[in-house]
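Example S7 (structure tokens).
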């Protein structure tokens, strides 16, 4: 995992960083957001593992149900959420505070297509006591600069269509 704050500063990418008591639930995140007074679309990141053993980061809306059949179509293999102990050992992150970006380049990042239509995105930068806000339009740039492959998740496609 990289230090996302330092990386964004180095590349002159706009971000907001908020420090607070640790939060692990969407409800706590909403309360903290109101207390700190920032705006943006709340996201959730899932750290996934494919049948092949490959890892993926998936970012979507906190309120959206994840269609694992659609994810299989996007990545080309069945995926499941990595167990907490394995994720913590690999990334140092705890469940509930998973970052969407900042992984080694070999880990593709899957992004819900609708997130790109938002103004700002809110997420945990791999720490439960921090919240980061970036411009949605910068997400593709961040992923590209990190060297991760970008995959687009679109749950509005008709059966048989890919990406």
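Recovered sequence:
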């Amino acid at each position: 995992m990289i230090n996302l704050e330092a990386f964004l500063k180095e590349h002159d990418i706009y971000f907001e960083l908020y420090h607070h008591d640790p939060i692990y639930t969407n409800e706590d995140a909403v309360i903290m957001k109101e207390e700190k007074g920032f705006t943006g679309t709340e996201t959730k990141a899932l750290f996934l593992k494919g049948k092949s053993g490959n890892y993926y980061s998936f970012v979507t809306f906190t309120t959206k149900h994840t269609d694992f059949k659609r994810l299989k179509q996007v990545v080309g293999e069945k995926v499941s959420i990595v167990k907490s102990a394995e994720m913590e050992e690999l990334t140092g992150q705890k469940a509930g505070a998973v970052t969407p970006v900042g992984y080694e380049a070999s880990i593709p990042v899957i992004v819900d297509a609708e997130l790109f239509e938002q103004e700002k995105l809110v997420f945990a930068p791999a720490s439960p006591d921090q919240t980061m806000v970036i411009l949605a339009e910068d997400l593709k740039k961040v992923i590209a600069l990190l060297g991760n492959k970008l995959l687009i998740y679109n749950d509005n496609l008709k059966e048989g269509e890919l990406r």
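Notes on this example. Helices lie at 4-10, 26-36, 68-75, 84-91, 139-146.
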